[in-house]
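>> received
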Amino acid sequence: MAGVPGAAEGLSRGGGAGAARSGWKRHIIRALKQRDRRQKASFQDVIQAYNRVLENTSFLQHLTGKIQTELTDPQISHTSRSPRTSLLVPNSLESLHAMKEQYQEQVAVLQSTGGELAYKIIELNKSLVDKDGKLEEQEARVSELDQEVRHLEASRKCLQVLVDLQETDNAELKEGYDTMLKCKHQREEELRIAVHKGEEALQGIVKKKEQEAVHRNNKNEREKKIRISKVIKKATEKTVSIDMEREDVATLDLKTLSLDIPEPQDSGKTLNRAFRSASATMLRSSKFVETFKDLFDFRKRRVNSMCSQSENLYPRAPVCVAATIPSKAIFVLEAHDSEVNGVKFSPSSKLVATGGADRVIKLWNVIGGRLQRIQDLEGCNSSITSVEFSPSGSQILAASADKAAHLWKLDGSKSKDTLTGHNDKVTAAKFKSVVHQAVTGSMDRTVKEWDLHKGACLRSIKVPSFCTDVVCSDYYIISGHHDKKIRFWDSRVTRCTEEIPVQGKVTSLNINPEQTQLLSCSRDDTLKVIDLRMNNVRQVFRADGFKCGGDLTRAIFSPDGNYAIAGSADGALFIWNVTTGHLEKSLQGMHSASVNAVAWSLSGEYVVSVDRRKMAVLWSAF
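>> returned
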């Protein structure tokens, strides 16, 4: 039992340094000491009883031996006995035997008790050995824990240093964030002021344009009145000879009277006025005024008639006889500072226009199989979603996310007009076949027709869903929508004349040169060819690996109408044969991002594709 306190003291000494740092070590040592004290107190009574038993046994053995010696040797003098001994020895033999039996019984009882105590001591020694082993294990575990605590303490210090550094960095970031937030609020306020000023400036421009239009109209009216007065005055001064025959008078026209007013091209109208008198007199001025008014009113009615629209159509573009399928990339460049959304060839196939999220339209010359940048058209306030050349090639129309369409003239003046009126992002803007007219589609669920000469909206058509693209035929406006439908709108009325459902959100529309087929691209990863004569889906194009990459992914016909081409989300170009419906070719490896749009030159020689990572690729078969 003496080893237990020593072990506890050694544990106390060994863990003294650790106890100074943490309370749990002191708790373990205190518990071990209390256990030692409890075990020592429980064994103390046993040890004392055992010692008394040993003393009594030794005394009895000594007394028994002495008595036996005296009994076997009667010669021993009674005088030699000590007074104490003589008092303890009985006088009779019977008493001696009784005392011996009594002592033997006591010795047997003591031996039995001693055996039990010895067994208990052995058991307690075994328990003590087991507990000493457990104590050693606990001491080893305590040592391991001490070492682990030291490691954890070192780690904690390192982590505390890192926490301090991180708190310092966080404080710096917080300060920077507060500064940026303050700057953001300032910029937002500046933006709000700028937007307010821009709206005021736009209103001022609109008012100025209205004033200029009124002024121009007044000026035109004044000039018209002056011309009319001069013609009337000149006509009233003209005399006619009396020798003129009736037939000559019947065929009298304004050229004979030198009115200097061009006759309508298809007018066979003649002045069939008969003279009542053959006298030599001057024609009355009132009759000439009547004649001139009739002619002027006729011209006015002629210009505004339905037949006059054919005179204001763009001339038909030359037809591509056979387009060549591109097979390789001949030129690659980073076209814009951000995502490129639109690309278009000019009718001459010599210019390419690209527009993207950097709010700039760039013009490129196609020379020697390369794209050479020649001009930038600026003025948009947000991302450009599509670009379009006019059929004459003298204008560019762009749809933008700033809720407007923008028109540039390429006659050297770089003048720009803005078509405002939409309430959300404009997704498509296309020229109509009628000169100075265009159509736009928007996310605000409207399709609008515009007079580009006046910059005014002629008609606004409310549609049931977001419009993603529009195309124009001679008689219809066709729009594609997010609700998976293609709608046909008559140019003369504001109602939908036909709806064609498809299986996915429509992303683009394109019409072939003969205006007999419509190509649609949708988010169900298919291209569909629609017969415009029967208004039904004629073919569906699919391909392994083709996936529509966005809500405004553009697919087009080739200029001869024999092929359909579209870009995929993985950067590949897929070309289908419209006649057979089979995949003709897949061009891969040049784009590393989703292809947003493609353009095929009217000559059929080149294809340009643009993607979300600013790249433009020029493809050719040679």
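>> The radius of gyration is 57 Å.
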